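Quick start: what a row looks like.
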Amino acid sequence: MKLDVIKLDAAKAGSIDLDDEIFGLDPRADILHRVVRWQRAKAQAGTHSVLTRAEVSYSTKKIYRQKGTGGARHGSKKAPIFRHGGVVKGPISRSHAHDLPKKFRALGLKHALSAKAQAGQLVVLDVAEMAEAKTAVLAKAARELGWKRVLIIDGAEVNENFARAARNIEGIDVLPTMGANVYDILKRDTLVITKAGVEALEARLK
């Protein structure tokens, strides 16, 4: 697959051949769905918790005598049937993460990249570098390029000035190649990859 390479000022900077095994697949929703579920489950805090009968702070004294009251026999105010008592089978702190094979995760990333390429939402940028960290300059360039909700993937490292300029612009996120993931790619309207990012992704996924 051949794609034009552009600069930040929208000028053309040649073209690039993209590997069809990474950018030319027929995207499968089931693969993308499984990888996104794995990502979101892993990110879930799992800190929701309730107090069980053993954890409620109450006296263990028998609340009234065993016989002669005409009511049910009770030994503790911690019982779940009482107000402020313990909760039965409520949520406890746990990890929601589950396993997904490494090869399947790599396949999901290939399908996410292919989905953006097929939808015409993939842009290849020459370099993501700026001489000065000027937010206004980058915001103007993004506006002229029509970037609203965009993810920019650079090479092994992101240019510091570019990252600082993008930090305060709503809708623009910048990641190094190793940070590229299915959820962030699919969440944005446009995916921008630098030439260095393309090379690094192809080396990572081959």
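That is the whole record. The longest helix spans residues 102-118. The domain at 2-45+97-205 is CATH 3.40.1370.10 (Ribosomal Protein L4; Chain: A;).
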